[in-house]
Predict the structure.
Amino acid sequence: MLRGWWKTFITRIQNVITASPTAHLSPLPKPTSSFSTVQMSTVRVAVVTGAGQGIGRAIAIRLAEDGLNIAINDLESQRHNLEEVRDVIAARGRRSLVFTGDVSDESTVKSLVSSVVEALGGIDVMVANAGICFPKSVLESEVFNSLLSLPLKLFTATVEEWDKIFRINARSVFLSYKYAAKQMIAQGRGGRIIGASSGAGKEAVPMLGAYAGTKAAVRAITQASGEQPSLKSFNFV
């Protein structure tokens, strides 16, 4: 079931990226001096955060197969995995950039964007996929798991754990959207900005209270950004 969900999510991303641009676009703001206006090549460029494993890895490889050059990001501890993904992308005939760092940190995201522009010529697609998950909720309790046919104990999240999961799962999305959008505006050609939410953000699972909260936040940030007048020329998913 999980693999099927991955396939559906990746197919949805592919459909958004390959869709024709909106026919009537609102005027774009003038470029800001702090972001590059490098002339884009004819090959589009995607940034995928959390690309060292799982869904992020699959997205990066699929986009390379679709003809995009790819910047892949994850923590330094995932460097070996990122280098493996880089080799797969190269085997697909596409260029790539490996960038390690915590995208919940603002300076890291700024550096990521500028590095991608310098190395690959711009950004057309941002996939804000980085995230973590742990089975913690608001209060300790027990729930009956029908799949396992036994009760499971739920553990309450500490304040530190709550802040950590929101920092990684929600703040990183906000920062990725913000600085990718600024760069895309500077380029003057629109773009696709995608956040990795979850079914848990729409219909929460009791044992994933903290995680579900972050994914609901991703949905809200994405929907609100898509309705912002200055961002109407972008596809937010």
